[in-house]
């Protein structure tokens, strides 16, 4: 068996989990094991629901945590017992396109990759399309990905397909909430693994109606900035020290949560107006954090426009 799918389930509604599981079981590539970790032992309904699936389809393996251990540890637990050479990620409220695995494996084999991701489309709680990333006939390979990772996490975590040897070399995810995936991708790049982005939408990513809180969003962006700074120096931070370093870093860089809120308010305005350009310029010169994020946005745009390799359809 060459393929393993790993998924952690916590508090997702049963109908979301059903849609997610069905999207995996209905893949055009069928020879795989599907390891599902239940990270909420109080969810008896979830255990019963998934157990019934595993009785009908022996590709499904259920692991029940005795207590909540978090996403990183749950995924590491699944990786540890996995038998596949390739490990696909999946989230319990997302939906994979039926041809996702086939196309991703072909992409990796054709380009000798160790690690790949795809584009996504965003859906709301009812499954309605909210936004779809723009597809093209370009692919982005290791050199482009390394440059992009200096600016942002550009590899959507639920779309990953990673060779098991990468997990073994990196010793799995580190418990760095909420940037476990970005941290893993950066360490993969530093370890010289070959990484690629397939510019095709192959997963529907469901938006959380509660969203991430402003405090957690600020933490996510500051942790990302810290990872980027270490990455530029070709190293990564000791995660046992990052909490203390966080406060020191924010003060030193003069980053504030209010600035981040203004940045997202700016990005949420779809049209380009004189007022928006004025606010953009004002924040660029006034706010160190917004200036950094805007520069990152521009860098990513330039890399996408002028980087990549064109592929024939």
Automatic annotation (TrEMBL):
Cited SUPFAM superfamilies: Nucleotide-diphospho-sugar transferases
Superkingdom of the source species: Bacteria
Gene3D superfamilies xref list: Spore Coat Polysaccharide Biosynthesis Protein SpsA, Chain A
Signal peptide annotation: none
Entry keyword set: Transferase
Keyword DNA-binding among UniProt keywords: no
InterPro entries reported in the protein's UniProt record: Glyco_trans_2-like (IPR001173), Nucleotide-diphossugar_trans (IPR029044)
Listed Pfam families: Glycos_transf_2
GO MF entry, a single one: hexosyltransferase activity
Keyword Transferase found: yes
Domain Glycosyltransferase 2-like: 4-170
The name this protein goes by in its record: Glycosyl transferase family 2
Organism from which the protein derives: Streptococcus agalactiae CCUG 29376
């Amino acid at each position: 068996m060459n393929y393993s799918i790993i998924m952690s389930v916590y508090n997702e509604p049963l109908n979301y989990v059903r849609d997610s599981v069905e999207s995996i079981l209905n893949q055009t590539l069928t020879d795989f094991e599907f390891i599902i970790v239940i990270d909420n032992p109080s969810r008896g309904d979830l255990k019963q629901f998934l157990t019934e699936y595993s009785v009908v389809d022996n590709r499904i393996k259920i692991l029940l945590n005795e207590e909540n251990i978090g996403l990183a540890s749950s995924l590491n637990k699944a990786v540890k017992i996995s038998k596949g050479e390739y490990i696909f990620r999946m989230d319990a409220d997302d939906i994979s396109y039926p041809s996702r695995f086939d196309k991703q494996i072909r992409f990796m084999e054709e380009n000798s990759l160790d690690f790949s991701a795809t584009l996504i489309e965003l859906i709301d709680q009812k499954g309605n399309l909210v936004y779809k990333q723009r597809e093209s006939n370009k692919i982005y390979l290791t050199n482009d990905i390394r440059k992009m990772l200096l600016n942002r996490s550009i590899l959507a975590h639920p779309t990953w397909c990673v060779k098991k040897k990468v997990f073994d070399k990196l010793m799995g995810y580190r418990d760095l909430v909420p940037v476990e995936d970005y941290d893993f991708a950066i360490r993969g790049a530093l370890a010289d693994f070959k990484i690629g982005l397939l510019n095709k939408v192959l997963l529907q990513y469901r938006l959380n109606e509660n969203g991430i809180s402003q405090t957690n969003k600020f933490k996510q962006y500051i942790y990302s900035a810290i990872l980027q700074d270490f990455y530029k120096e070709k190293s990564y931070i000791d995660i046992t020290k990052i909490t203390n370093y966080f406060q020191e870093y924010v003060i030193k860089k003069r980053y504030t949560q209010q600035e981040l809120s203004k940045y997202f308010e700016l990005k949420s305005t779809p049209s380009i107006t004189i007022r928006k350009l004025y606010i953009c310029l004002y924040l660029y010169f006034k706010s160190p954090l917004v200036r950094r994020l805007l520069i990152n946005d521009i860098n990513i745009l330039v890399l996408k426009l002028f980087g990549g390799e064109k592929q024939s359809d």
